[in-house]
Amino acid sequence: MNSNERLILELKICNIHVGRLELAISKVKSLYPFTEEVMQNLQDEDLGYLELFTTRLGKLQDALGEKVFSLILESLGESVSNRSSIDKLNMLEKLEILPDVTWWQDLRKLRNVLTHEYPDNPSYIVSNLNTAFIQAKRLLIFWESLANYVDTKIFKNQ
Question: How many domains does the chain have?
Fold first, then answer.
């Protein structure tokens, strides 16, 4: 399988994450902004959608950062085999594919925070969920522009 075929497969996987993330957002948006009181009174269904939200946000970010970005760069003829993650992000920013390396790094940190439990710090959980809700919407906007870029700049030339 060449890099374009792998890219197509990874984009399909990202589309699954996007669809589930959008579903989760639609189900938890009535809880936003999250507060400690909201978190203490979550119904089981809400908790399930909140889990879906944080999981799919992380999976989408992982898939993009760990696979899709490298495959895009390879498809554009860039050598990425010996490049660090930050080098790849900088290349993507220089090519105007990624709007801001710092935003991506902050999103990665947020993803890492969301994967852990903090039972003794509900205000920390609430703060990060509120940030995640905003950043998830930004990530979905970025996803649309990235998918459009791939369609028009990479696959259109095939």
Answer: 1
